[in-house]
Amino acid sequence: MRLINAHTLEIEYFTGTSIPKYAILSHTWLAKEATFQRWTNKWTRLTHKHRPGFHKILATCRQARRDGLDYVWVDTVCIDKSSSAELSEAINSMYTWYEKATICYVYLSDVAASGTKANDDTFDSLRKSRWFTRGWTLQELIAPEHVQFFTKDWELMGAKKALAVLISTITGIDAACLKKEKRLRDYSIAQRMTWAAKRETTRVEDLAYCLLGIFGINMPLLYGEGPKAFMRLQEEIIKVSDDHSILAFETNLSDNTLFAHHPSAFVKGGCIHPNYGRHLTLPFSMTNAGLAMTTPLIQTLSPYWVLAVFNCVEVDTENNMQRSQICLPLFGKDNQFMRARIPISLISRKIDAPYTLNSTENLGVAAGVLDLTPRSETNYYISYFGRVYSAYGREIDVAMKGFQVYPQPDHGFMITFPRGMAGYRLHTAFPRQDLRDDISFFIPTSRYVRSSDSPQKEEEMQISSGLVVFKSDSLSDDDPSKCVGIYLAFVATTSSIASDTTASTTTLKTTTSTEGTQDLGWVCKVSPTREFYNNRTNAKQVLAMANQEALLGNCPHYHRCENTIVSARTRFQTPKGEPCKDTVMVEIVFDAEELVRERDAEERDFE
Question: Which Pfam families match (predicted)?
């Protein structure tokens, strides 16, 4: 490691335990920076001392002497960049060098001193400083424990710990991380990716190389590989981390579906945390067939797409820290899948949401609400588009075209089975045309309208509803003894005195004069009636009864009847409106009694 002697300005070389205490400089590069070759020439140092690139090094040495330090490290002159081997070693060691520095001086060349005509609000300039937009300065901010910020005139602005809250708002980095109160490894891969999402580097490859220390990675530098460097970084991270959040990126924002092409694809990453539950994440790795994964899979009505349940959660900091489990829609067959872009590339499946309950019997655990997260795990591969498509292209084309519905409905239900179908099969639906079993969506078009009885306010409640019916595999189609009906509905209210009287049931938003914009309600219930399933007239009667209950405000998002549970806790918007603009995820379980026994056993084992 080369260091500048703060007194003689000569560069000296140290190794191992002989490295003395030193200060380190963090800065943004300008047009004419000093180099190792120029600095080692004493005459050049003297004649160029007023140039910005040389002057800030001299100022760094002066500040180090004031702080009682004899040595400083500056990247522009302490690395001989003409040697590719030395450059590679330096970049792989840089996080450690910053971390071990006694103090780091951050020189902000675009921030004027307080009280000058150039800028009366120094901290406003701090927010706009170019230093916070550069890739390399991310590790230079996080790694050192003691950091001081200086203006362009070397006026001290403050220390990192004192400015932690302000810096956190600028960078999105948790203040506890800046203060060294939490370790880097306490933050998920996705969270750390978001810290770099808006940063830039001059070389494309450096966007990956500047993150080596953030993820504790060492790898060779291959300038010229372009965006592949960031892909290679993610492959290296997978070798040392079992954090599923590395895959929690938006494929719609990435040129690649297996790995993200840029940190900006991790738009939700700041809220995604490792799931410190009772279940360890099983190892996963990169193979020549793609990522070999082992996670629970949630089935749908379609044989060509499933949801992979990951061991990481999105935490809603603005809503009582409620958690949502990250699920990835996957297209494919025979446990060979690729990431999906439709209907959505990431689903945050709510697991802590407040439920509206309606249960006919005691559920046994969890205050009456069962955790439907599947425990059984499946071995499968997530591969590149080309590999999966070459094998199942025709079938996948048919499946994906099913999402193209015209005209696009505003809302619908996505039907899923966290524990599989447990010996049941789809029997029918009312209305049948509303069920798209090829894509596992139920998009109700049947309308039921009721006007308000109040003379002071003309209010209208509108319901879009239907029934999906399942039947035991062991019975013939004409035997209704083991049929299960699932009632699904959207409920909206419109008022004639609203500021916007054009609201309708085909949108998930309605407007009233007193409460402003409101979410449309939705309902899910298990129907206890059996005899109607082959009788359309009786089905209409059951629908009418269920609609009346919904109009009375009985709108559960979770319901159990006998051995069946239906839950509709998760709502999301599809980026392309395929097959509908807004979707509610419906989870159906046909073996509730077995689920209760399993969850009770888990509670006993945990105690």
Answer: HET (PF06985)
